[in-house]
Write a structure and sequence with these properties.
The protein is α/β, with parallel strands linked by helices. The protein is built from 18 helices and 12 strands. Strand 3, helix 5 and strand 4 form a beta-alpha-beta unit. Helix 2 crosses helix 14 and helix 5 runs parallel beside helix 6.
């Protein structure tokens, strides 16, 4: 074969295993994962989706423990939050799963009740390159998926406000367990929002010497999520032809975190104001999708129930503005979908939402629980339809610049191609202590000579870096150079 042929040979497409508790429309995280997988496939990657139902049941002991913990949590919640709460306990071991074993990158997503921190560690120690995509706060808390304002995850979750006092030991032990399992292993996190990345960095789990967090926003197929005709969508759904159409969408409208109670108060107040000041003007009406129903005094509510993606598109095209008065959220799919369809968003200043919506540009922002401010804005939008149209155009422009699924896929492919290693000498206030005298040696590039005293010291039993060294041994075994040089020297240094 000629040199020209060799140089023109294309590298094999990367193989990526996307791991999640569930796929399809099981929730926002599952939808985001499926969209990423589709974008990666369209970009040429070989993608396997591995979900819990494909892996069979865990052992009997694990099932009993899981049922017991779930029952205790269900019966021991306080009124603070009804968002999911999932303790970190051992479950499935994926290190030997065929799709995972063959992958160049294991992309872990929302795995609550499926893969625990111990399972993540086994993946890394088996030599897999792991990128853990965050969809909520659960990977770095003692069990809450959103903290409801509590900062216990930055320390030890000693007194969880979401559980009764009799269960306070559960999140404390869960967090401590996860912290031990994730300590000292090279691990990359991917966050769709800067807000969630910052929360991770504040947690007691994150160690900047071994962990990295990268912000990669979720993406959409913008050929599918695109502006559509409002009049036709309203006609097909049996909605009023006139009036400000307000869309509220969520997997569960009954989840307090989503702020449906605030939305009800805001819409009722705004509609009453419109009727009082302009009796002849069509009143605003509400479109909802997701489980649960909303009853708003004096307002027509059209409930679509739980719908597939086509139903979400139709509802979004039928509305004028998307209302998201959530109390906590990462990077809501519903907000991104509305903006991509050219529909502005009225939302709260919380979580990752301000990264998606600039106040007065692609939509409008109000403070959490401020129903009065939201009502004032709804009243204004009902009176100024040109304001809605202009913001919708800017929303679509923003989506095309930042949330194209192809851009997201490209960033993940770059992640898969990286030969990433941690920086054990990086300063941090948490995690294992590191003898600073070793730092100059650890910063040196590898050589073919004997192991330095510093590297040999790492091997000794009791060293805080003994666990990561096992990772290095496995990585060395997977390359020709490692088998020839690094691995024999590591074995020689074994105490």
């Amino acid at each position: 074969m000629s040199g020209d042929n060799l140089s023109s040979k294309q590298p094999a497409p990367p193989r990526i295993a996307c791991v999640a508790t569930a796929a399809g429309h099981a929730g926002g995280a599952a939808i985001a994962m499926e969209r990423l997988a589709a974008g990666l496939r369209a970009s040429g990657a070989a993608v396997d989706v591995v979900v819990r139902d494909d892996c069979g049941p865990p052992g009997a002991a694990t099932r009993r423990l899981d049922r017991g913990v779930r029952r205790a949590v269900r019966d021991g919640r306080t009124p603070v939050s009804n968002t999911l709460f999932t303790a970190d306990w051992p479950a499935w071991d994926l290190a030997t799963h065929p799709a995972v074993a063959a992958a160049d990158l294991v992309n872990v997503h929302w795995v609550a009740g499926f893969v625990a921190a111990a399972g993540i560690r086994r993946l890394v120690e088996a030599g897999h390159s792991v990128a853990w995509t965050l969809h909520d706060m659960r990977p770095f808390t003692g069990g809450c998926h959103y903290s409801a304002g509590c900062r216990g995850f930055t320390a030890r979750c000693a007194a969880c406000p979401q559980l009764v006092p009799a269960l306070h030991e559960l999140p404390a032990r869960s967090l401590a367990r996860a912290r031990r399992r994730l300590a000292g292993i090279p691990l990359r996190f991917v966050s769709p929002s800067r807000w969630l990345a910052d929360e991770l960095a504040c947690s007691s789990i994150f160690d900047a010497r071994w962990h990295e967090v990268r912000v990669i926003p979720n993406g959409l197929d913008l050929t599918r999520f695109c502006p559509g005709e409002r009049a036709g969508a309203r006609r097909r759904l049996g909605l009023p032809a006139e009036g400000l159409g307000i869309l509220l969408g969520s997997v569960s409208l009954a989840e307090r975190r989503k702020g449906s109670d605030v939305a009800v108060a805001a819409v009722a107040r705004a509609t009453a104001a419109v009727a009082a000041r302009s009796p002849g003007r069509p009143r605003p009406f509400v479109i909802t999708y997701g489980s649960g129903r909303l009853e708003i005094p004096g307002v027509a509510c059209h409930a679509l129930g739980s719908v597939a993606e086509a139903g979400v598109l139709e509802a979004t095209h039928a509305c004028d503005v998307h209302l998201t008065l959530t109390r906590e959220d990462n990077l809501p799919n519903t907000v991104m979908e509305a903006l991509a369809c050219g529909r502005p968003v009225l939302a709260t200043r919380t979580g990752g939402i301000p990264e998606m919506v600039c106040d007065g540009v692609e939509g409008w922002l109000v403070d959490v629980d401020d129903a009065a401010a939201a009502a004032t804005m709804i009243e204004r939008l009902a009176a100024e339809p040109g304001l809605v149209v202009a913001a919708g155009r800017r929303a679509r422009d923003r989506a095309e610049r930042e949330w194209d699924a192809r851009l997201q896929a490209r960033r993940y492919l770059d992640l898969a191609a990286e030969q990433w290693m941690p920086h054990p000498t990086r300063a941090t206030a948490r995690g294992h202590s590191l003898d600073r005298s070793l730092a100059p040696h650890l910063d040196r590039p590898p050589t073919n000579g004997p192991l330095s005293p510093a590297v040999a010291a790492i091997v000794h039993r009791g060293s805080p870096l003994r666990g990561p060294l096992r990772v290095l041994r496995r990585l060395a075994a997977r390359t020709a150079r490692g088998r020839a040089t690094l691995r024999p020297r590591l074995e020689e240094a074994r105490p």
